[in-house]
């Protein structure tokens, strides 16, 4: 009897956990033949699963990564899974502004199209600094993508009906920006939250300034995903988090679904500048919809990355 009760309890717990991790899949079957997609951090996790999905739809997919060896391996896997040979990588370090500028110069020389830019790469809550002395989270998650997007914006406008999708997180709600200390790096988790809030403001202001110019922008919370973000932490932390992620987090394939939805669905254009969760528009906290703050952050970011 005890064994039977234990089995039933375990089964109930399993079903509850499975129900908690339910997500919607992108059901749009739209093809992307002739389109070019650029995905930062596309060599692993959500980025790689997004690359596979969009390559299967016929897109030319370019993954931008810092680690060349991992990028080469990822390209082989993406080609094999998608049956699309038009997949390649370019080296990019979002923690280095000079590298970002060099990457964009090279990209614009080699690529005549850019239809979808997916700002996927990100740093977790780490207490570290970029090569330009920005806190790692704010420097990579916001400023790096801010500069990258602006330098490629002309090509996006040329292609028309282009999209910029930036991955954020719903933990944005735990912090507000401090314009006296945007480079805040005292408590890593708070720094991460601020960088994700910055992603949301960035998306809103990008949508505003490109309205009617052939570019739309979307911020996506992919859910809590079983990715390799724990590689930046200690072994003990990784072990504990692997157990937690197995129980409560969703797969990378499932996490990529809302990103894919925003990349291909025609319905999302009605929510330009919007925030998406689970393949549908989601509500933001009131402070995260402040257009004045979004514009102020954009102008401050221009100064920080020295964007003329």
UniProtKB/TrEMBL annotation:
Transmembrane segments: none annotated. Belongs to the short-chain dehydrogenases/reductases (SDR) family. It comes from Coilia grayii (Gray's grenadier anchovy). This is Retinol dehydrogenase 11. Gene3D superfamilies: NAD(P)-binding Rossmann-like Domain. GO terms for molecular function: oxidoreductase activity. It holds the Pfam family adh_short. Keywords: Oxidoreductase.
